[in-house]
Design a protein that fits this description.
Number of helices: 5
Structural class: alpha+beta
InterPro entries: SAM_HAT_C, SAM_HAT_N, SAM_OH_AdoTrfase, SAM_OH_AdoTrfase_C_sf, SAM_OH_AdoTrfase_N_sf
CATH class of the largest domain: Alpha Beta
Number of domains: 2
Order of helices and strands: EHEHEEEHEHEEEEEEEEHE
Pfam family, one: SAM_HAT_C
Family: Belongs to the SAM hydrolase / SAM-dependent halogenase family.
CATH architecture of the largest domain: 3-Layer(aba) Sandwich
Helix content: 10-25%
Protein name: S-adenosyl-l-methionine hydroxide adenosyltransferase
Keywords: S-adenosyl-L-methionine
Shape: elongated
Number of strands: 15
Length: 255
């Protein structure tokens, strides 16, 4: 869809920042459609932002521009990345890494069209630089006049750690995300078979289900995350709180 801009940020909704971003886009490109993916990425957390982007991008129409405003590194140059189906406007800080595993980058442009930047006090380049560029991109549908193409090798990327094999069908996984409900999402892809058991902080869980029926409130079980990861869930409660587990926690998984 031409002109669709999807925004992902760590701004939260308490302040005026998100509304300002919307206003700039509509001022520059009145016909652009704007969608908010989330503004609750953990502050300055590239891994969290990369996960949210990976788990959402595929549901957007071809031509969508993802405006990713998580910017902990002021030295990361602002770029436009084009893939076969999408554009990203973001700092070159790795936020597209997990998306690129499925939707490879085809070209990357260092943003040079400074005449589109907004003059503003403070170092708020998400507002002053990236947002007006995304708005112009929604009109042009090409990055050629907005930046200088650079080597794809300069695009910063990272990988999540793989589960560590322990032998006899057992792995050491880690929690890569804790969602709003307190579900613990693991770095294990669901391949049609749920684990026989998982163990977190000394608590062993053996019950599993692809669905959520038949459980008592607070009962822990193994399930499938909507984006095809193995997850640990507490029915109508927070598994994270019950297990005292946070992102990065180690989980012993047995198949």
């Amino acid at each position: 869809m031409k002109g669709l801009i999807a925004i992902l940020s760590d701004f939260g909704l308490k302040d005026h920042y998100v509304g300002t971003i919307h206003g700039i886009i509509k001022d520059v490109a009145p016909e652009a459609e704007v969608v908010d993916i989330t503004h609750y990425v953990r502050p300055f957390d590239i891994v969290d932002g990369a996960l949210k982007l990976k788990w959402s991008y595929k549901y957007f129409p071809v031509g969508t521009i993802f405006l990713c405003l998580v910017d902990p590194d002021p030295m990361a140059i602002p770029v436009i990345v084009s893939t076969e189906k999408y554009f990203l406007v973001c700092p070159n800080n790795g936020i597209g890494s997990l998306m690129f595993e499925e939707e490879p980058p085809e070209a990357v442009y260092k943003i040079t069209a400074e005449h589109y930047f907004i003059e503003g006090k403070g170092n708020f380049r998400g507002r002053n630089q990236l947002t007006p560029i995304a708005a112009e991109l929604s009109r042009l549908q090409s990055a050629v006049h907005l930046g200088e193409e650079i080597d794809l090798k300069l695009l910063k990327r990272f990988k999540l750690p793989d589960p560590k094999p322990l032998g006899n069908g057992t792995y050491e996984a880690i929690v890569i995300d804790v969602d709003y409900f307190g579900n613990l999402i693991l770095n294990l892809t669901y391949n049609g078979k749920l684990p026989k058991s998982v163990e977190v902080n000394g608590v062993k869980i053996e019950r599993s289900s692809e669905g959520f029926g038949g459980f008592q409130k607070g009962e822990l079980f193994i399930s499938v995350h909507p984006e095809n990861h193995i997850q640990i869930v507490a029915y109508m409660a927070s598994a994270a709180k019950l297990l005292k587990a946070t992102r990065g926690a180690k989980v012993k998984v047995s198949f």
